[in-house]
Design goal:
The complex is a heterodimer of chains A (423) and B (415). Chain A has 423 residues and is α/β, with parallel strands linked by helices. Chain A is 31% helix and 24% strand. Helices cover 51% and strands 7% of the residues of chain B. In chain B, 52% of the residues are buried. The chains are: A alpha/beta (423), B alpha/beta (415). At the A-B interface, helix 7, helix 10 and strand 15 of A face helix 2, helix 4 and helix 17 of B. The structure holds flavin-adenine dinucleotide (FAD) and iron/sulfur cluster (2 copies). Flavin-adenine dinucleotide binds next to helix 1, strand 2, strand 3 and helix 12 of chain A.
């Protein structure tokens, strides 16, 4: 099978690159061995929340002072606003509504009631422009009886620091009670699966009753697994402003993002192979000719370009053994010290150097093999080295923007080839 | 490091990072709160069971063995295999008469085809259905597939056109359903393969692939059949014939469940056991075969991905072939479980769950407004036809029907 581009890894970065390429009419395949880090998504993508130990309000201004190896430095601060706008358009076309803008961070409400700087937050969630002026006067926090992945006490404590009076109500419905029969599996996704149709109406009535004279209601983000529609419906029936707060995984909004982006990619004519593992690639000099997968063994999978979007350690895009860190699919160069004692910080809250490890690329994200950039293999997303998603609050931004940048370059190169051929 | 490598079990139990992704893709957990779910029933429970088999939980019987959890797991944990192995190893309850009957597809098939008229009539009668419901626990909503009066094997032996005149040869693993219930699919397969220059032979001996026996814990019987099948397959392969099946479940069972669940080694022949659409699509893709279709064939269809097809990762082959038929409008359909899982949905205690699992799929199929659903699995066919009223066919039947046989034979140098 021959494609214009084959993308290895179907998480946020693989899907964004895939959608962008498919929109331009390319024939694209995504191969993904399992589900992605989006399932752990907080509801917000960070662009750059912190740098040099400071919280940032204007991320673009700080990008210029990042080290040269940082993915944003490779993209270039001047290119980021256009790519960021493009990302928002793609999300909207996939049926995902986000608020936020690259020029200025807004703040998302964390489950601990803190306000964290953020770039794009799904419309479901509680956000504010300025933590000292939230505009909320009186809040009701609700939770479902028996749901342990949301801790209203922590949220209320955090909100008190904003001088927001809160009361708390526990709600239950017959459909939710039924889930409690399996207490260990009464989690966000399970609840989301039953919150639809008439159950939503019952829920709205319960919320209205509990809310009293509150002007805002915070509830766990457990609505709308494959579309925003149930959230809209619920909001239209609830009298106060209804805002969601992240809960422990599975992230319902993360699954929604994954499902919607994949669906959109397939609508655009893309092919998505789920549950297949790319096992190796065949290079001819600096050019990757074809790849092999576990399921399609014996079938040659060829493409003009390949994008490596296999994520970090969590998704097995990077692998660690006691004496080395490596990229298991193609054997790309990885930047990580040989000395194991330099991999981790001493305490879990220290800076963790391993977060910054990743494959080495040139400025255009061509993957390096033994110090030589491949002609047609790019890396995007969490597999890239040089950024620290947790410290910087940059995970989503790196994934989305590197993917769009590479896709844009591939499209531009294709156009250049075509006009050359015509000339 | 060596210590670490030695301690990785074949089902990757140790790779589980407790992320819980598998739990949100389990079709059973979504409808049945009494099922512990893939993580709990699989890697988590296994750690306890390894310490003490007493921890075995009888609710593991609710697992469909659909492997959707495995497809979702980012750490390649063989969750479904862990659960099925646990059932085989630890569930010591005897197999009931009903389960034995449901699982013995080839024995039942042999009995039924010899008196197909009586059996078909009887199985359709409300009285028989309620008796089976009450005495055996086979749900009365279910209709047994009609038994054919002539098995596919006997048609092949007596009536099939001469297969020796074709330049290439293959062996067909037809499976019980084709043999006893739907020999037409087998005939379509022969027609299609002949048109592209392949002569079709039967295996020296073929038994049921064993999927139903595995699901009903008749492991010794399943292993015996598996050994016999692999013996026949080896012989065919050694004579240069790949072994092709039209049922995704048969292929999946022979390729993957034999070594994983039955300890029947197939490594030497595994690559030669293929699904029909995967085999043909590969030939088409490599330009070695050309299919020419009739101009007057027009259908609006959709493709349903059976769970085992999802696990094999091969729906691309069926979909690509169907797409290549000019007269077909292919409506996309999201992959989800139909709920039948072979004999599972026939059992009275599972019927309601089975239908609840499939509900979404049925609604989407009805909404799609298609003439026909294509799918590579025979039990999905029964379930979807019963629950939606829409006709379901194997892609091979659709290809055979749409094929311009003469033009295809010419294009492939067969005539
Ligand atoms: C637990 C967790 C929570 C996070 N939360 C947030 C958040 O809330 N906000 C934020 O901005 N960022 C967050 N991040 C950062 C996150 O890394 C990025 O936002 C982004 O999701 C990364 O996307 P990706 O596509 O690069 O990688 P991934 O999402 O990891 O996707 C990689 C994909 O590649 C597949 N794959 C791997 N190897 C192979 C192979 N050999 N063959 C085929 N497929 C393969 C994997 O199965 C996986 O589906 C989080 C990260 C983690 C780990
Ligand atoms: S998805 Fe895989 S790694 Fe995650 S909990 Fe399930 S089995 Fe474990
Ligand atoms: S095999 Fe299917 S039914 Fe069994 S645990 Fe996995 S997803 Fe659930």
């Amino acid at each position: 099978m021959k494609y214009d581009t084959i993308i290895i890894g179907g998480g946020l970065s693989g899907l964004m690159a895939g959608v962008k390429l498919a929109r331009s009419g390319s024939k694209v395949a995504i191969i993904s061995s399992g589900q992605s880090a989006l399932h752990f998504y907080s509801g917000s993508f960070g662009l750059l929340g912190h740098a040099g130990g400071k919280e940032l309000l204007h991320p673009l201004e700080a990008i210029g002072s990042l080290p040269a190896g940082h993915p944003y430095s490779k993209i270039g601060a001047e290119s980021i606003p256009a790519l960021a706008d493009d990302a928002k358009r793609i999300f909207a076309d996939a049926g995902l509504t986000f608020i936020g803008d690259a020029s200025k961070n807004h703040f998302r409400l964390t489950p601990l009631g803190l306000c964290e700087p953020s770039w794009l937050t799904m419309d479901d969630y509680a956000t504010c422009e300025n933590p000292s002026e939230t505009g909320w006067r009186k809040a009701t926090i609700i939770n479902f009886k028996g749901f342990l992945d949301f801790l209203p006490g922590f949220l209320a404590d955090g909100l008190k620091k904003h001088d927001l009076p809160c009361n708390y109500a526990e709600i239950t419905l017959p459909a939710i009670e039924r889930l409690r029969r399996n207490s260990s599996e009464m989690r966000a996704a399970a609840i989301a699966k039953v919150l639809k149709g008439p159950v939503l109406e019952m829920l709205a009535a319960e919320i209205n009753r509990a809310a009293g004279d509150s002007d805002v209601v915070f509830m766990p983000a457990v609505v709308g697994i494959d579309s925003e529609q149930p959230v809209r419906e619920l909001r239209s029936m609830v009298i106060p402003k209804l805002l969601c707060v992240p809960v422990l995984p599975m992230s319902v909004c993360g699954m929604r993002s994954q499902i919607r982006l994949r669906r959109y990619f397939e609508q655009l004519g893309g092919t998505y192979f789920l549950g297949d593992n790319v096992t190796r690639g065949y290079m001819e000099g600096p050019v990757l000719k074809e790849i092999e997968t576990a399921n399609l063994s014996g079938m040659s999978l060829q493409a003009d370009n390949f994008i490596l979007a296999t994520g970090s350690f969590f998704s097995q895009g990077l692998a660690a053994e006691p004496d080395r860190i490596y990229e298991p699919v193609l054997g790309a160069d990885v930047e990580a010290p040989a000395d194991r004692s330099l991999w981790c910080g001493k305490s879990i809250f220290d800076n963790q150097p391993y977060m910054q490890f990743g494959v080495v690329t040139d400025r255009d994200f061509h993957v390096m093999f033994n110090g030589v950039p491949a002609g047609n293999v790019y890396a995007v997303g969490a597999i890239l080295g040089g950024s620290n998603p947790i410290r910087e609050g940059s995970g989503g931004g790196v994934a989305i923007l590197s993917a769009l940048q590479v896709a844009r370059n591939i499209i531009a190169a294709g156009r250049a080839d075509m006009s050359e051929a015509q000339a | 490091m060596e210590y670490q490598i030695k301690n990785i079990s074949p089902n990757n139990l140790e790779q589980c990072i407790k992320c819980t992704i598998c739990t949100v893709y389990c079709p059973v957990l979504a409808v049945n709160p009494d099922y512990p779910g893939p993580k709990q029933a699989g890697p988590d429970g296994e750690r306890y069971r390894l310490k003490n088999p007493e921890f075995y939980d009888a609710a593991l019987k609710y697992c469909l063995n659909c492997k959707r959890c495995e497809v979702a797991c980012p750490s390649n944990v063989k969750i479904g295999d862990i659960i099925q192995t646990a059932r085989i190893r630890y569930d010591k309850r005897p197999v009931s008469l009903r389960d034995r009957m449901l699982a013995s597809t080839d024995f039942m098939g042999k009995m039924a085809t010899s008196m197909s008229f009586i059996v078909n009539t009887a199985l359709r009668m409300p009285l028989t259905k309620s008796v089976m419901d009450l005495t055996l626990g086979i749900d009365h909503h279910r209709s047994f597939p009609a038994y054919s009066s002539e098995t596919f094997e006997s048609w092949m032996r007596r009536k099939a056109p001469d297969q020796s005149r074709f330049p290439r040869r293959l062996s067909y693993f037809h499976g019980c359903f084709v043999n006893y219930n739907n020999p037409a699919l087998g005939r379509d397969f022969v027609k299609l393969m002949n048109a592209i220059g392949y002569g079709v032979s039967l295996l020296e001996k073929e038994r049921c692939c064993g999927v139903a026996k595995i699901a009903n814990k008749m492991v010794d019987e399943a292993r015996r059949d598996a050994r016999l099948n692999i013996g026949s397959i080896r012989k065919a392969v050694s004579q240069g014939r790949p072994v092709i099946a039209t049922s995704s479940t048969c292929v999946f069972t022979i390729r993957d469940e034999y070594p994983h669940l039955l300890d029947v080694d197939n490594a030497d022949v595994r690559d030669s056991i293929q699904l029909a659409t995967a085999f043909i699509n590969r030939l088409v893709d490599e330009g070695r075969v050309k299919l020419v279709f009739r101009k007057d064939y027009r259908r609006r269809i959709t493709y349903h991905t059976p769970c085992h097809m999802q696990k094999l990762g091969w729906s691309i082959h069926s979909v690509s072939l169907l797409r290549s038929i000019p007269g077909i409008t292919l409506v996309p359909l999201e992959s989800s479980c139909c709920g039948i899982a072979g004999t599972y949905g026939f059992k009275k205690e599972n019927y309601a769950y089975s239908q609840a699992i499939g509900r979404e799929l049925f609604d989407r199929i009805i909404e799609a407004g298609v003439d026909l659903v294509a799918t590579d699995c025979e039990t999905c066919k029964m379930q979807i036809e019963m629950s939606t009223g829409v006709k379901v066919e194997n892609p091979v039947t659709i290809l055979a029907e749409a094929l311009d046989v003469e033009a295809t034979m010419k294009a492939n140098g067969v005539i």
